[in-house]
Design goal:
Helix 1 packs across helix 2. The N and C termini lie far apart (35 Å). By secondary structure, the chain is α+β, with helices and mostly antiparallel strands. The radius of gyration is 15 Å and the shape is globular. Helix content is 15%, strand content 40%. The N terminus is likely disordered. It has one domain: Beta Barrel (Thrombin, subunit H).
Amino acid sequence: MQATRQLSLAFGSASSESDETESTRTVESRNEPREETVRRVEYTSFPRSAADSRARVGFTRNVSDSGMALGVDEVLPVGTLLRVVVQKPDGAADFDAVARVAWCHEARERSARTPNAWLGMVLVAEIRRGLARVPHSATSPVRGAA
């Protein structure tokens, strides 16, 4: 429970009891190291259901082999699938994946400098050459595997 409180303080939002339970499970289930970094991420709904659905931009707070914390301008429901393309500092694509929203915390105070919401993303499939590669087990990380 302490980790959840620290997490909600770090993200600057209050969480409900159900969010707290989901956040606690997410924090406890991620054992691999996280890279504290800010990266530009383009994301779209997956699968793309409308031809006019456009790519949106968010920024990472941290990234690991199984997921990331993503700052975005819109609140998305838990369970939403997104196609995310994380970019290198030079703008080239670092990796392309399908991710599921594990938790979402809306910002209490909105400003032009901060995201409106933080999403906890779990990577579910890596996209290579246009094909999705799903790990052989649910506990295997999507990134870093051959």
